[in-house]
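User: Quick sanity check before I run a bigger batch. Here is a single chain. Can you write out its predicted 3D structure?
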Amino acid sequence: MAQVIEADFHNVDNVGTPEHETSSIACLNLSPTTGDVAGNLMMAERAIREAVRESPSVAWIVLPELITCGYSELESVYRYAEDAQSGVSARFFTGLAQDLDIHIAYGFPESVPGTEAGVYDSANLVGPEGVTATYRKRNLVRTTAEYRVFTAGAELPVVEARGMLVALAVCWDLGFPEFSREAAMSGADLILAPAAWRSPWKSQYDLSCAARALDSGVYVASANQLGQYPEALFDAPGHVYGPDGERASQSVEATSIGILEPDAPARWRAIYGNTVAGDDNLTVIGGDAYGNDASAVR
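Assistant: Done. Predicted structure follows.
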């Protein structure tokens, strides 16, 4: 399906070799049908199984933002909101992760029963062990209805999975350098980013992913929604970017696959320079990397 690229760090000599086992990651750029949760889950399963069948080393999957219901007709998205731990998509993708022994990052609208928080634009990371992390999008877009129908999140969890420390992002979070910086300062070496990045900003999507990877010396892997919808055209497939900011994947059709080397972020920082170390004036206390209150990050 796709050729994978190892982190050779172009134009850099003596970077060393990986000490830990590598794995492949697949960004599946899909076209969900608005409001068809069951159909979208089945579409995602077909794409995941095909990616694993074509590239058996795939251990990570990234799916688009709001893959369960589609990034369209946002005013009705509350109808498809679900609990992050026990909702239909969490159960579905956990079962698939157990069956294939993989980890899956995907976007969905999250409801929090018993609260007045409303609906979050969330991403889950699930593995054979179940839901590993839930992230609620902090930076809500103000050029669509997004900021009116979702509640902004605050926390940025970093969890360990398959020998890497992983953070989640959702789409427009990639536009903010302080976001990846905070994740890296919390230990992350891999950011998984479901997205629904619209035309005409295809080049800005690529640049943002690459810049966030290089900013903090981390991997960034993003999958985008594709297709023509009433509100917008989504035409920018997502890719994998290495800690050197270079694209670390190749694509065939809507699938992009690359290699993850757990040691690569530390190796790159040692050779190029560590952009997140030695900043004694920067703290992360419930907000961004500059000490701002989380509620101010929009």
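Residues 37-54 form the longest helix (18 residues).

User: Great, the batch can go ahead then.
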